[in-house]
Amino acid sequence: MEDMLKIINVNKIYKINKYENFQALHNINVSFKSGELVSIVGESGSGKSTLMNLIGGLDSDFTGNIIACDQDLSKLSDKELDKYRKDKVGFVFQSFNLISHLSILDNVTLALTLSNVSEKEKIERATNMLKLVGLETQIKKKPTQLSGGQKQRVAIARALINNPDIIIADEPTGALDTSTTMQILKILKEIADSGKLVIMVTHSEKVASISSRVVEISDGRIVSDKQNNKYKKEKAKIFRENIEPKKTKKPIKQNLSYLSAIKLSLHNMLASKTKNLLMAFGVAIGIGSLLLMLCFSSGITDYINNTMKSYSDPTIVTISKQSKSITDIPLFDAEGTEITKLKDDINKYLEENGYNYELTDENLTPGFNIMTMLGPVSAYLEYDFNKDGEITDDEKLNIYYLYTTPPYYSDRNLVEGEMSTSSGGVMLTPAVYSFFGEETPIGKKIDFYVDINLPDFDQEIPINQVEITGIVDTSVMSGFPVIYIDYDFFMSYYDDYSTPQPTTYYIQTMIDSNDLTESEAKEIASAINRYISTLDGYTGSIEESLANMFKSMASTIGTSLVILSIISLVVSAIMILVVMYMSVSERTKEIGVLKSIGARKKDIHRIFSSESFLVGLLSGICGLIVAGVLLVIIYIVLIHLVGIAPLSFKWYYVFIALGVSVIISILSGLYPASKAARLDPVESLRRE
After folding, report:
1. Alpha carbon distance 442, 32 (integer Å)
2. How much is the pLDDT for 236?
3. Any idea what the CATH number is for the domain that residue 182 is in?
4. Within its chain, how far is the Cα of 201 from the centroid?
5. Is there a contact between 376 and 329 (Cβ–Cβ < 8 Å)?
6. Are 116 and 219 part of one and the same domain?
7. Rounded distance between C-alpha atoms, residue 41 and residue 218, angstroms
8. Predicted local confidence at residue 252, as pLDDT
9. How many Cβ atoms from other residues are within 10 Å of residue 310's Cβ?
10. Confidence (pLDDT) at 497
11. What secondary structure letter does DSSP report for 502?
12. Residue 240's pLDDT is what?
């Protein structure tokens, strides 16, 4: 019969330190055939376990040759050694090395999971194997619920599940009583009699006595090799038939799949539910705060945009001179050269881009819009509440803006009174209500004073006994005292003075003479706005400027809050890294077991990376729940306190939350996963 295992001139040297080595094996030469039940005996430290690690492919650092199943282990790559351990060798350990959080069935199917065997076939083969060792009724139990003998039988079933050619049993009965020892030895003998090569490392003479061959090692050398003439080989046909799996179509790729890795990782996570839930909740706080900041930022922006849209007309374009500072009030030139050139440039742009529209003087409306109180223009109104002819400070109201009524204001902006101001009246924002108290401002006549200090124009213009015709809600400026006055009516007070030039022009794209639909007028207005945005020295309306200012402030605040959220996420990432690193240390022996049954470095990395992925996914889901609860609470509080809740949850925030959480978790788990993959299998199995 041809040798199944041949060991030729094998030496093994351990490096103790920089200057000292220890030779554990000296010129080992021995061979074994299939069907043998071999006992390797010797004192502790004699080299028995070292030899078994070399035969099993757990340690490849040796000189000489080990020919196993027609493969020279000294010439195999790490990947080929992984496959050798998975397909050709089965390990049975003294301490059983079962994974405590997996069921008996899952412990046995573990090697099949690494081979990407289908779920149905895994369960069928593992059930049959457990039935063979007498544990068919225990498959749902955990290892902690079994006796020592039962655990060793599970270990034997796991070793046989991939139908290996060689079974290596390291002190298989060392932790068992006499009765159980005989049961295990009987099973191992039947396995050998079925045609497998079974090699046992043992101190026990009783174990050695039932072997077909006893090889003794002392100080790393084989000192005797004896056949047991009393050994009687028995028929083991039933055992052989059950060990060998039915021929089925092999999977395309016999490696651990991502789906199997995730399932295995889920088992691992469920075994430490409290730890993983706490870790996920810690990350969820960071994810939830990030979502809250996004909701606040987008909510404020949406609120401003929606408010602006509700108060403006998309068919009208506002063009203002861009100021260099808050005290600068740039005007269009007195000769009209600037607006004429601008008009011609706009027409050229529209023509080049295929718009059938011409901007004329008929479409242009001038405006005079100035922020007061901070620059060369100031304005205030007076109202004699006491009717005594004397005005006190309480009867004066400073005006923040002087604004000639834009053409896009209409009845929809009206809060009270009438929109028209051209007949000799003015309109005010709702901020004026606090000035008049319980009295309605409508119909009251006020004295209005404007002090303008501009180049070539330095006058205080009194507009006496002008009537308040209406109160208008003007979007973002409603909280400020703003006065609106018709441009022609306002300029009529300058008959005796030099007239300041407009600060603003309005382009009305939709007027009767243009014969445009509303959709066409909006499209043309949008095109003009795009062109104006490319020009230096020009900007939109005051409302637009204020809206941009508020949006910029909201964006800045939102960005700052997001940065704070990111800091909390960094802390969460460090927490994940620490917990995963500790998990690797706690599960070192489990990693050794996985490697002993053929897990590749890539498989170990994939398992731990899958756990990181699941932690990230769970954290993202928890973060969404946390954010959802807080958003509801904040919404109710804001509505109750201030009447509005500028919060906006976009549907894609779900994917942002999950994506950020998963990415952070995976990145945090890279180092622990790499460390787990690099662990030495021999050292891992020694870890208690």
Report:
1. 111
2. 59
3. 3.40.50.300
4. 50
5. yes
6. yes
7. 9
8. 43
9. 11
10. 52
11. P
12. 54
Residues 285 and 315 in one domain: no
Three-state secondary structure readout of 1-68: CCEEEEEEEEEEEEECCCCCEEEEEEEEEEEEECCCEEEEECCCCCCHHHHHHHHCCCCCCCEEEEEE
Which residues, 6+ apart, have CB-to-CB distance to 168 below 8 Å? 52, 55, 56, 89, 90, 91, 92, 199, 201
Q: Report in angstroms the alpha-carbon separations of 109 from 23, 245, 593.
A: 38, 13, 13
| Contact call for residues 424 and 467 (beta carbons, < 8 A) | yes
How many structural domains does the chain have?
3
Residues 413 and 285 in one domain: no
Helix (H, G, I), strand (E, B) or coil at 402: strand
In 406-493, at which residue ranges do the beta strands (DSSP E only) sit? 414-417, 425-428, 445-454, 457-472, 482-485
Domain assignment present for 50: yes
Residue of 318, 308, 315 lying closest to 532 (CA atoms):
318
CB 34: neighbour CB atoms within 10 A? 18
Supply the pLDDT for residue 222.
93
Q: Which residues contact 461 (CB under 8 A, 6 or more apart)?
A: 449, 450, 451, 452, 493, 494, 497
Tell me, what's the pLDDT at 204? 80
Verify that 503 and 558 share a domain, yes or no: no
Cβ count within 10 A of residue 375: 16
Joined tokens for residue 185? 């030895």
pLDDT of residue 175: 73
- Note whether 431 and 398 are within 8 A (CB): no
Give CA separation, 654 vs 91, 658, 659, 668, in Å. 47, 6, 8, 21
- Ramachandran bin of 471, using left for φ above 0, alpha for ψ from -120 to 50, beta for the remaining angles: beta
Instruction: Tell me the longest C-alpha to C-alpha distance in the chain.
Output: 136
pTM score of the predicted model: 0.70
Residue 653 CB contacts under 8 Å (≥ 6 apart), including other chains: 291, 294, 295
Radius of gyration of the chain from Cα atoms? 43
Q: Which of 369, 323, 319 is nearest to 345 (CA)?
A: 319
H-helix or E-strand spanning residue 506: strand 504-508
The kind and range of the H/E element at 364 are strand 364-367
Exposed e or buried b per residue across 191-204, where buried means at least 16 C-beta atoms within 10 angstroms of its C-beta = bbbbebbbbbbbeb
Q: Beta strands 401-404 and 482-485: pairing type? A: parallel
| Backbone φ, ψ for residue 54 (5° rounding) | -70, -45
Q: pLDDT for 449-508, tens place per residue?
A: 888 776 656 677 788 889 999 999 876 678 889 999 988 888 887 755 556 678 889 998
pLDDT at 84: 92
Listed in sequence order, the DSSP H helices in 272-380 are 273-311, 337-352
Outline where 404-493 has alpha helix (H): 433-436, 487-492
Query: Residue 602 is part of which domain span?
Result: 271-302+551-686
Low-confidence spans in the chain with pLDDT less than 70: 1, 235-254, 305, 308-311, 326-327, 374, 454-458, 475-476, 495-500, 512-514, 541-551, 554, 558, 687-688
Asked whether residue 173 falls in the same domain as residue 40, the answer is yes
Is 589 found in the same domain as 537?
no
- What is the C-alpha to C-alpha distance for residues 328 and 604, in angstroms, rounded to an integer? 68
State the Cα–Cα distance between residues 165 and 42, nearest whole angstrom: 25
| Predicted local distance difference test score (pLDDT) of residue 247 | 47
Q: How far apart are CA 518 and CA 550, in angstroms?
A: 29
CB of 91 within 8 A of CB of 606?
no
Report d(CA 396, CA 384) in Å as an integer: 9
Phi, psi of 521 (to 5 degrees): -65, -40
- Residue 262 lies inside a defined structural domain of this protein: no
Q: Is residue 261 included in any domain, yes or no?
A: no
